[in-house]
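U., I forgot to send this yesterday:
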Amino acid sequence: MKAGYKFLIIMIILLMVNFLVVIIISDNGLKELYSLKQQKKIIMAKNLKLLQNNQVLYHTIDRLKNDFEYIESIARRDLGMVSRGEVIFKIKENPGTKTK
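Result:
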């Protein structure tokens, strides 16, 4: 083998090693690629959770628009409303009585 040919092969090998080091260590290297993949997984999981939450909200909106019994239950639970003809009993507690 000629000396020039050996020198060329050594230079090519050194150049390839240099490229490999740059790819692994540089700012846009494998480390950042791994980081971006992890961020993508987190974002995809958040996206899925938001989609599920949206489905629940769409279902609730549909029930509020179309289901009278659901509207009535919300009015009773959250607003304390009663139907016509219903009687409410309020019980007064004695000041000396302790409740648990």
